[in-house]
Amino acid sequence: MKRTAIQIIRQLVTGPKDFWQLIAKQDSCIKEFVEELKNLEGEGLIKREGGIFKLRENSKKTKSYLNSLCDVCENGIDPGKIGKLKKTFEEVVKERPLPCEDYDQGFMRVEDTLKRALFIYERGDLEGKNIFILGDDDLLSLAIGLMGVANLITVVEIDKRITDFIEKRAEQKKISSIEVVEYNVLDPLPQKFCEKYHTFVTDPVETWAGLRLFLQRCIKTLKGEGCSGYFGLTHLEASLKKWHQIEKFLLQCNLTLTDIIRDFSFYPEEENKWERFYQTYKVLKEIPDIGLPSVNWYRSSFIRVEAIDKINTPSIPSPSSFTELYLDEETWATPLPPSE
User: Fold this and answer.
1) pTM of the model
2) How close are the terminal C-alpha atoms of the chain, in Å?
């Protein structure tokens, strides 16, 4: 089912709505929205009585709408509104693996991981979809799995500690939609993942080589037009010139930017226990004796892209080493990679 159709039906699950109430809760242009309304009516899934739209009985099996929108700003995400889900996720991530400097890891706040899952849901990119996640120290797969709306959630991750943890928690919570595969992004993407997914999510390393490689791997997994992708990107280790490069790359692939939410995710200093990493950070070498941070200063924006035509994924060379993958002249808060 198309994203717009999902967004229409999930609103009608809560009760009849008029045209203007429905159009305010979806993302398509007016022309596409009207076409989808007519399609749903023609398929017998919804009916119109005057100016009011309702679900027909054969659509009643649609899952209830998980409303997490903030009541104040109307388009922000408030995980507190999904209290039971938030509490369960907080329990699930307890005793998670700490970041490993070998892989430039660091997980975001629990509420920010949940915000990501809910934002992707609001855009209509989870329900009945196949989701591909490249790297998951944030445990986003578990947050999505607990929502119970995705068809398939595939996690590919290099760190066996994380793959084992996700598998263990998924089994404990009986989340059958999650599959976990150990994978090094420097290796070619296995063919079994190509053109199989509706949505990808990743947090790429922020060298130009790393950004392009992570996104290329993910874009290859998408089925085609209308599919979407999400990734984090900072202004701390990615200059505007690098942002410009990545935007050009996405356009080359026939993907367009639809959303950029600045500083959507923060990375907690205390929980990540990064103290041992800082001695290798370039920022402390350039400005010595500034001490360790007393606030959660590292944050990233969340970006959504969508394929507007047949996807064109260029072949690119893989970096020859972890050093090339992780470090460039802008990565001032990235630990030195393992010796090779």
Assistant:
1) 0.91
2) 47
Is residue 67 domain-resident? no
Angstrom distance (rounded) from CA 270 to CA 281: 17
Q: Identify residue 250 by its one-letter amino acid code.
A: L
Looking at the structure of the chain, the number of domains it has is 2
337 in any annotated domain = no
Q: What CATH number does the domain containing 177 carry? A: 3.40.50.150
Q: Which domain holds residue 148?
A: 79-326
Q: How many CB atoms lie within 10 A of CB 328?
A: 19
C-alpha–C-alpha distance, residues 22 and 37, integer Å: 10
H/E stretch holding 18: strand 17-18
Q: What is the DSSP letter of 161?
A: H
Question: Does 25 lie in the same domain as 166?
Answer: no
Q: Are 46 and 186 found together in one domain? A: no
Q: Quick one: CA torsion of 176, 179, 180, 185, rounded to 10 degrees?
A: -150
pLDDT of res. 306: 98
Query: Do residues 177 and 152 lie in contact, with contact meaning Cβ atoms separated by under 8 Å?
Result: yes
**Is residue 155 located within the same domain as residue 54?**
no
> What does each C-alpha distance from 78 to 49, 81, 328 come to in angstroms?
34, 6, 36
H or E element in which residue 143 lies: helix 140-147
Domain match, 115 and 259 both: yes
Give the integer Cα–Cα distance in Å for 182 and 184: 7
From 199, 205, 195, 251, select the one nearest 232 (Cα to Cα).
205
Q: Same domain, yes or no, for 177 and 311?
A: yes
- Which letter does DSSP use for residue 262 in this model? E
Q: Residue 226, Cβ neighbours under 10 Å: how many? A: 14
160 closest CA partner among 94, 95, 97: 97
74-133: pLDDT as tens digits:
567 787 778 899 999 999 999 999 998 788 889 999 999 999 999 999 999 999 999 999
Q: Residue 266 and residue 109: Cα distance in Å, rounded?
A: 6
Asked whether residue 175 is domain-assigned, the answer is yes
Q: How far apart are CA 268 and CA 115, in angstroms?
A: 15
